[in-house]
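comment on this one:
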Amino acid sequence: MDQTQERIMADEHHVQHMFLLVENSDMVCMLNIAGHPYRLRELIFKMVENGCRVKQTTAESFNTFSYDKETVEVYDYLTSIIKAKFA
């Protein structure tokens, strides 16, 4: 890790933003997530560990995703807008 990355990871107020496409056998979800990089890594690791396929995507894909349900979740250091399409 270079010094810039170390500084970002050490800053508890740093917020990273990304869009993810997450798939499992029951549904396909698009996530618009923002939070500290450690929290995002933890979330992605848990999804993969639970058998999900996870792929980073774009804002355009998020905005045009056809979904059945949309929810907003807010936790310490992590906020997400989740659009889900059920199988």
The radius of gyration is 14 Å.
